Amino acid sequence: MNFADLRFSPGAFLAPAIDWLNANLHGLFVLISKIIEAVLGAIETALLAPHAYVLIAVVVLLAWVLANWRVALFAGAMLAFCLFAGLWVASMQTIALVSVAVLISVSVAFPLGILAARVKRVDAALLPILNIMQTVPPWVYLIPAVMLFSLGRVPAIIATIVYGIPPMLRLTTLAFKQLPKDLLELGQAMGASPRHILFKIELPTAAPTLLVGLNQCILLSLAMVVLAGLVGAGGLGAEVTRGLTRMEMGLGLRAGLAIVAVALLLDRLSRGALQRQARRT
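^ that's the sequence the OP posted. Answer follows.
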């Protein structure tokens, strides 16, 4: 036997499973695609319906409320760059894609993180899974997503969701594990229900760490933007891909800088909210 001829092919095991899923759960995948497309379309409409100057003013005001005037000016400058670079629509599409992905990632990771913090067996079971998820290169997630949902924005969002879940889940678990026991005991001694303890004691105390998890989830989701352009997701990733394939250096550079601007915008907004929340607590 020639051991050099022995090969391990994961595709030989995964292909039948993918075929079975496509044959038996096609309706479910279509439903998921329609729901995601509807939510994504609504957010894009909300971002693109007002004039760019109006939206910039709203974001500046929101940044001032959430953080401070410095963050507000910075947010306005980043959005103005996207506008004057001629990439306003693509930038809003990217923000919409990231918003949907982060919303779903947080919806999955937050309850799982609380459960893992309270049940040791769940925490032990999730740990190796999270280690693998954070070790696998991000583009690998696009392969099964495209096989199940075809090309377009939906597989890009699915892959982004999977990539963004681990940091939020880990930090949610950490936040609830580090809660001071005396505060929880005080709430129980006062006769507070588990629901009141969760919303009145646990969440406010864990908020700074949770916001860090949200910040990491946003930034990792943005890391998928260029890859999402490879599967037809549109947005700034598509502009970067177009610039590379056509050897248009100016377009690729502008799109890359616009991605940096969007990343800095979301990072400063989340960090500003984090710092304000930390000062309050």
